[in-house]
Amino acid sequence: MSNEYLKFDQMAEALLEKAQRDGAETMWDRRAAQKTQCGFGEAGVCCRICAMGPCRVSPVPGKGAERGICGASADTIVARNFARMCAGGTSAHSDHARDIVHAMHASKAEGPFKIRDEAKLRRIAAEWGIEAADTKETYALAHELANMALEEFGKPFGTQRFLQRSQKDRLNIWERENIAPRAIDMEVTTLMHSTHIGCASDYESIFRRGMRTSMSDGWGGSMIGTEFSDIMYGTPTAKPSSSNLGVIDKDQVNILIHGHDPNLAEMVVLAAENPEMIELAKAKGAKGINIVGMCCTGNEMTMRHGIKIAGNFYQQELCIITGAIEAAVVDVQCIFPALPALAKKYHTRFISTSEKAKISGDLYIQFSEATGLENANEIVKIAVENFVNRDASKVEIPDVKCDTMVGYSVEAIIDHLDKVVNTNTTDKTGTVKPLTDVIYAGVIRGAAGVVGCNNPKQVHDLAHVTVMKELIKRDVICVTTGCAAQAAAKAGLLQLEAKEMCGRGLKEVCERVNIPPVLHMGSCVDISRILDLVNLCALEKDVDTALLPVVGIAPEWMSEKAVSIANYVVGSGINTYLGVIPQVLGSPNFTKLLTEDCQEFIGAHFVFEKDPIVMVDKIMEDLEAKRTALGI
Ligand code: SF4
Ligand code: MSK
Q1: Which cofactors (predicted)?
Q2: Nearest Cα residue to 387 out of 255, 246, 244
């Protein structure tokens, strides 16, 4: 059970030993049962998209079968598999966004689904050309905007509305290269069609269709998800929180919220604040109700409410193994199907809530916009009543937690920058100019977006934390989302005090702006906030994003969503570094397309590098080369 991949996190090892004592199975047992992973799958050359297959072609040219039964080559098979990962990732982010828009469509002044950031509602409505966006009645406007957003998924003509935010050189590249995304559902459908047996075989064409689909995620679904969540639940502002499994409280009813979609979790937080529910918890012997978050539902809730972060992807099982979780409540994405069986080893109720992610094995309470608060009340009551079933002899909560700052939306960052500007002038710039100024002046050398998951192919959190520590030491400011952000939180990188780990330039910026060197920008869909920020810098300097000294990094990624993200970040002109090699090496041509050739038409490329220190060395070379080219 003990595994070299866990050595960074001593706490995990202790809990895994506890799991063994408790007779509970974990991902490490299942990882060991997999033995050696399939080399064909690893190289991306296994095809099972038709029933003549599965076909495996040789990842080594000249050795073994060179084509599948239909004649598909390694290039075609690898490109199709990669493209279908983009389609899967795009659909996950975008379908999440659609649920947020549906909640907005159901919003009303007297219901639990309300408009909480009216200014943003009016701003986006004006951006999308709705007449009288500044004067219309709030909910009439919200419903009109929601209807327009729903059209972004299925409109027959035109491209994504948010593209118009982009700096013009980048927009021209998208139009020239035919990767400006159309309706989101159309892009996913076209890509699935294109990669059906007997359709596209040209690997570059498949890649381009995949990139256009991913662009409909980044500049479509994810951006809609972020902006509309802000309208519904509030745009995040900087606030303190704390992180790691020590945030679980042995004296309280602990409810774990896990997944991605804030609709349910917002209602659970409301329900848990109900004085009647708190009284019930006390009557059951608890001091109160403690909500802790995991993965991106956790990120959404910490960004807006400061909800404590229990951990990231790897820690979902460890959380239950503490024996102190009364209910694990999940919505969609990144939820191990193994959790209900694990929960049964303890007293934990496992509650799935979405028909898109119905997980068998315990309780299913279907969440809907019409009954959201009632569903949440039922869930919280089940958790509270379960407190008496906790077995004290099975409780072991690691005494480890770390204070952290969260909530750095683009608006919050600009607000911080304004406060510095105001030391010299009475006017707020309301722009990212102070940030671009310090980058252009060389006080900081560049910026990095560090995102993504955990993956047993990397030591838990080690690559995330090493990359971020090395970058801030070398005066590169980091923004982060997803499980990478939670790794940073646990390592103390999201504290103001982390400025002491920085180079001189970045330290001074952190002190003057009163920010940590690594800024938590939210969940996986909130990578659209990073796109927005980089685009604002490009607009400020009126240059293509590809010219700016910025990079994207996913040190420990694992999901299809991460493939889609990497693809739209490259499509947005930002070189993207992956610490886990995607399953493409079986096609040297496709690999070269990703790592070199796409630079020619999109202005950015992928870099694969498993070693985090070597990765940072490459990133610094990249950033300095961009600086030289810009003459800064
Ligand atoms: Fe084999 Fe071609 Fe069918 Fe793939 S599409 S399984 S390569 S016959
Ligand atoms: S939760 S997609 S494991 S970042 Fe967004 Fe973490 Fe990756 Fe899920």
Answers
A1: [4Fe-4S] cluster
A2: 255
Atom 1, ligand 2: which residue's CA is nearest? 295
Burial 588-608, CB ≥16 within 10 A → b, else e:
eebbebbeebbbeebbbbbbb
Which ligand 2 atom lies nearest to the CA of residue 451?
Answer: 4
Task: Identify the residue whose C-alpha is closest to ligand 2 atom 8.
Answer: 334
Task: Please enumerate in sequence order all residues whose Cβ is within 8 A of that of 529, keeping only pairs 6 or more positions apart, or say none.
Answer: 226, 409, 410, 481, 521, 522
* pLDDT, tens digit (0-9, with 9 covering 90-100), for 414-454: 999 998 755 555 567 899 999 999 999 999 999 999 999 99
**In the predicted model, is pLDDT for residue 322 greater than 80?**
yes
Pocket of ligand 1, beta carbon within 6 A:
47-50, 52-55, 68-70, 72, 77, 197
Least Cα distance to 160 among 552, 553, 528, 594 occurs for 528
Sorted by where each begins, the domain ranges of the chain are 74-233, 245-394, 402-630
Q: Do domains 74-233 and 402-630 have the same CATH topology?
A: no
Give me the mean pLDDT over the 244-260 stretch.
Answer: 97
Residues 595 and 593: their CA atoms lie apart, in Å, by 6
pLDDT digits (tens, 9 = 90+) for 467-481: 999 999 999 999 999
The interface pTM score, or ipTM, of the predicted complex is 0.96
Query: Candidates 66, 69, 76, 77: which one to mutate for ligand 1, based on the most atoms within 8 Å of Cβ?
Result: 69
Helix (H, G, I), strand (E, B) or coil at 479: strand
Q: What is the topology classification, in CATH, of domain 402-630?
A: Rossmann fold (3.40.50)
pLDDT-based confidence at residue 5 (cuts at 50, 70, 90): low
CB of 89 closer than 6 angstroms to any ligand 2 atom: no
Quickly tell me which residue has 């070299």 as its tokens: 4
Lowest pLDDT segment from 3-7, 392-396, 398-402: 3-7
d(CA 127, CA 165) in angstroms, rounded, equals 9
The CATH number that domain 245-394 falls under is 3.40.50.2030
CATH of span 74-233 = 1.20.1270.30
What does the alpha-carbon distance between residue 227 and residue 390 come to, in Å, rounded to a whole number? 40
> Averaged over 344-368, what is the pLDDT?
96
* Cβ(570)–Cβ(598) below 8 Å: yes
Indicate the pLDDT class of residue 213, thresholds 50, 70 and 90: very high
The C-alpha torsion from 123 through 126 and 130 to 134, rounded to 10°, is 70
